[in-house]
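Hi Y.,

Following your request, here is the sequence exactly as I used it, all 403 residues.
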Amino acid sequence: MVYISSSRELQRLKSIARSPLYSLFSELLHGVITIRAFNRTTDLIDRQLGLIKNFIIPYYSTISAMRWLGVRLEFLSSIITFTTAFFAVLSRDVIEGSLAGLSISYSLLMSANLTWFLRMSADMENAFVAVERCIEFTKLESEAPDEMPFRPPVNWPSKGEIKITDLVMRYRKGLPTVLNGLTCTIKPTQKIGVVGRTGAGKSSLTLALFRIVEAESGSVVIDGIDISTIGLRDLRSRLAIIPQNPTIYIGTIKSNLDPLGHYSDAEIWRALDSVNLTQKVQSMEGGLEAKVTEGGSKLSAGTKQLLCLARAILKRTKILVLDEATASVDYETDHHIQTALAKEFSDATLITVAHRINTVMNYDKIMVLSNGKIAEFEKPSVLLQDESSLFYSLAKEAGVKSV
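Below is the corresponding structure, written out as tokens. Let me know if you'd prefer a different format.
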């Protein structure tokens, strides 16, 4: 009883300590080039060793507990065997030698079986810690349903108008709010650049639009429909997003651009031509059927980002969100992205979370966020004329020539 209760808790501690260890190891494999480039090898080794140490503590304790149990079980087995042999000697005049030998042999087998039974019982209970964790995951609060009784029209959104009213959002209960009463109206086909310092709430706004995190209060209305009244599939399938870290799947170029098989090869080639990737894909073995590894490890960051843009072009939505999509690409790729956006999404509403101020200087309006609120929302030319504006200071720090 002492061993099982202790080993069960140690197994939980091992499971908790193992997850960050494997996670960091996976990150190191994918980011080894960047780590070496910035000469952070020693720091990451120290961090990994720290996680290994945290894992070894409960692991060593588990092994020690097993040795503790083994010593006591062997001692108990020895007592049983000794008692059997002792009474066999005392009864030498009553029982035959063969029967005495048989009883001693069985006592040895019984002690071994007892040890095996207790160890297996303990291991089984420890193994059920994994089942316990799975049950905990099943009890986590899930997202809203994919479909709700109210379904938006087939052509929704047809204009791309977004009205946000008193939007308040926090990542989970107990944490501070990241959006604090955000209110604005984005007219159809407007190009909006969202800027602000780190932690201002830029990426949180995109999470709220796609309901990755549900709003605590307020509303987001797209073309007259409150997005909280429709299913997640209806919402997310009608909007498009190009994230900062491009999402690439194992498969082929074609399956990455059109995973559901809705478009013809001609439409896919047209999308690739729009982002200047036709020659690159044609040069790959298999063309559209060229193999793509996990995470697109054989593709450059710029190519992966352009593939995500081609995927959005195929979708032809009226609302496109770019979450710092050009933050990790070179200026040539950035130029291709901006050219494709201007050509293919001229009649769509475009919301760009900007890391580089230059990328949004030609937009219709700039939304400057600060502490989860809209500090400024005006044309870039107007904001640049006001030297006291927050956008002016951000543009000056970025070295924008017009400042």
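The chain has two domains: 2-138, 162-398.

Thanks again,
Q.
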